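Q: How would the C-alpha cells look for this protein?
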Amino acid sequence: MGYVNYFAKDCLQQLPWQKISQRGVLIVGCGKGLDCAEFTDFGWVHGVDVCRDLGRDFSHPKVTYFRESAEAMERQSDCYDLVFSVATLEHIHDLLSAFREIYRVTKSGGLIYTVAAPLWNSAEGHHLKYLGLFSEFPWIHLRLSPTEIKNYIYANKTAVDLQDWIDILQQEQLLSVPLVDGDLVSYAENLVNFLSSDYFNRLPASCYINGASQLPVNKLIRNELWQDGETLLTPDVLIELISKGFTKKELLAVSHNYVAVK
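A: Here is the predicted structure in C-alpha cell form.
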C-alpha cells in the first residue's frame, strides 16, 4: 500500500525525537498488518483493529495485534510514543471518542499522526474514484438516491463494468444479496447496498477538524483538510449540491490530516 508508506515517511519526519529503537508505536486500524511493517525499526509495535483478518498478512517479532475498536481501546493510558492511523477514522462512527482514545494512549511528548481519507462528501467518497466506475458522474453518491444509482447502472453500465468492484466485495465478504455470475441486477444490488451501508461514517469534514481541535495537545502541527476535485465541480454540479445543503469547501475536502505532540 503505497499511500501508507508515503504517510509513514511524513510521520517519521515529524517525530520530536531521533532515537526510536526503545520507543513504542500503536497503529490504529492496522487491518491485515501491512501498516505495521513501516514501523519495525521501533522497539515494539502494537496494532488494533476489529477486522476478521487482523494481522493476517504481516508477522514480526516486534509486532503484536489486538482485536479492539478505536472508540474503546483496552490499551493503557500514556503508553505509546507514537500513535499512527491512516485510512481508518473515516469508518469510525463515534469519531470524537476515537480521537479521545488516541490522545489517551499517547505518552506526554508523544506524537499523534492521523489521516482520514477519502472523506464522504468528496468526489472520491466511498472510494468511488477507485476503479473509475462513476468517473463520468462525480458525487453520484450525493446526487442520486440508492434506487436512482441502481437505475443509472442498469441504463449505463454492464456486468463487466462492475466486475472488479464485485470481485473486491466478494473477496472481503461484503456481499449483501446472493450473487449471480454475470448478472447486472445482482451486481448492482450488491454494489449499491455497499455504497448505502455504514462501512463509512458519512461525517462532514468539519467533524474531523472540530473533533481533533478538542484535544489539549502541547504542540499542534497540523489540523487541516486537503482538497481535490475542483475541475470536476462544474457550476451546474455545484448549484445542484448547494441546493442539497453542501458547501464548496465540504465537497472538495478529500482528506483530513492531524499531527500533534501531546
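The two ends are 28 Å apart (CA to CA).

DSSP finds nine helices and seven strands in the chain.

Upvote if useful.
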